[in-house]
Amino acid sequence: QVQVVESGGGLVQTGGSRRLSCAVSGVIKSTGSMGWYRQAPGKERELVATVTESGREVYADSVKGRFTVSRDNAKMTVALQMNSLKSEDTGVYYCLLAPDYWGRGTQVTVSS
Length: 112
Known about the structure:
- The chain is mostly beta strands.
- The chain is built from no helices and eleven strands.
- It has strands spanning 3-7, 10-13, 18-25, 34-39, 46-51, 57-59, 67-72, 77-82, 91-97, 101-102, 106-111.
- The strands form two sheets. Strands 2, 4, 5, 6, 9, 10 and 11 form a seven-stranded mixed beta sheet that branches. A four-stranded antiparallel beta sheet has the order 1-3-8-7, with no helix packed on it.
- The N and C termini lie far apart (40 Å).
- The model has no long low-confidence stretch (mean pLDDT 95).
């Protein structure tokens, strides 16, 4: 059984940094993309950043230059380093192992 578990969420001040981690178990190896989506209150879930097995990264325009996604294929983990956080980055962050293995999410709240 595949399990996807996020960690690292919490309360952070505007302009601060936070690192999210995601661990996948139950899969020996995956060639699918791994990455992060988020959902703000009252909004639909949106792409934040993903990375393929070969290391190709895709970012939402709103986080380019501030967030960095990284992946460890051997450990089946993916991380999201978030810098220069803004209030609009607040939301529940979900980890995805493509095509459709989702974690339960971790809350990130950015407040001044």
